[in-house]
């Protein structure tokens, strides 16, 4: 595979998706068809259907292991149908969340075990990991306050309404992943003004995927 796979990660309220959208708006003019932008859970027809089941606020009775398995199933379909073909076609793939989210949210947040969730996803992904992961760091309380103040109530999902203790476990899970895979993670301070976060992210991608911008 000659493409490059970069993921965006962060706790709720870090502004990860908003920053990604702004960065993509800049890059699409430069890269055109060489850029693939996708998300998890989702990214194609089948995975988007699974996403709706996972995040539906009405599904309060969903078992935690069922939730983790659904994420892994959506990821498998996303990988084989969307990500791998793009990488084989020499494209830059930017993905909003990937395996690290499952390990942090279900493994640590749901307390079903980070290693157990990691192994489940190794099966689903055949151990395919991103080239680099851009992590948007923000204190848990700050992130949750942002959600409460700014997010449209219709866009608040099942995970957004979890307890502060849950979100703190998720954050701790991310910290463990960053410590374990410190050569893959690039940390960006998400408490900065949004313009600075966007600029930092743009600079990082230009640096780690410079080959895609040589002719731009």
Outline the fold blueprint.
Layout lengths: L3 E6 L6 H16 L3 E5 L5 H11 L8 H25 L3 E5 L2 H11 L4 H12 L6 E6 L2 H11 L13 H17 L4 E5 L4 H15 L8
Parallel strand pairs: 1-3, 1-4, 2-3, 4-5
Helix pairs in contact: 1-8, 2-3, 3-4, 3-5, 4-5, 4-7
Function: Phosphorylation of dTMP to form dTDP in both de novo and salvage pathways of dTTP synthesis.
Enzyme class: transferase
Keywords: ATP-binding, Kinase, Nucleotide biosynthesis, Nucleotide-binding, Transferase
Q: Helical proportion?
A: 40-55%
Succession of helices and strands:
EHEHHEHHEHHEH
Query: Mind telling me the C-alpha Rg?
Result: 17 Å
Distance between the ends: 22 Å
Kindly report the name of the CATH homologous superfamily.
P-loop containing nucleotide triphosphate hydrolases
**How is the CATH topology named?**
Rossmann fold
- Major β-sheet strand ordering: 2-3-1-4-5
Outline the low-pLDDT stretches: none
Domain Thymidylate kinase-like: 8-199
Family: Belongs to the thymidylate kinase family.
Enzyme class: transferase
GO molecular function: ATP binding; dTMP kinase activity
């Amino acid at each position: 595979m000659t493409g490059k796979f970069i993921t965006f990660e962060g706790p709720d309220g870090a502004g990860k998706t908003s920053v990604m959208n702004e960065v993509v708006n800049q890059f699409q003019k430069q890269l055109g068809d060489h850029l693939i932008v996708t998300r998890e859970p989702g990214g194609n027809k089948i995975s988007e259907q699974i996403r709706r089941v996972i995040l539906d606020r009405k599904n309060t009775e969903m078992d935690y292991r069922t939730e983790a398995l659904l994420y892994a199933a959506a990821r498998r379909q996303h990988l084989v149908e969307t990500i791998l073909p793009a990488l084989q076609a020499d494209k830059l793939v930017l993905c909003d969340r990937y395996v690290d989210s499952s390990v942090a949210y279900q493994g640590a947040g749901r307390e079903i075990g980070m290693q157990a969730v990691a192994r489940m996803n190794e099966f689903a992904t055949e151990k395919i990991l991103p080239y680099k992961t851009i992590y948007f760091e923000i204190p848990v309380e700050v992130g949750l306050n942002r959600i409460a103040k700014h997010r449209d109530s219709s866009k608040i999902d099942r995970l957004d309404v979890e307890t502060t203790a849950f979100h703190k476990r998720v954050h701790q899970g991310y910290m463990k992943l960053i410590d374990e895979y410190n050569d893959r993670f690039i940390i960006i301070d998400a408490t900065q003004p949004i313009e600075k976060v966007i600029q930092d992210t743009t600079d990082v991608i230009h640096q780690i995927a410079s080959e895609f911008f040589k002719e731009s």
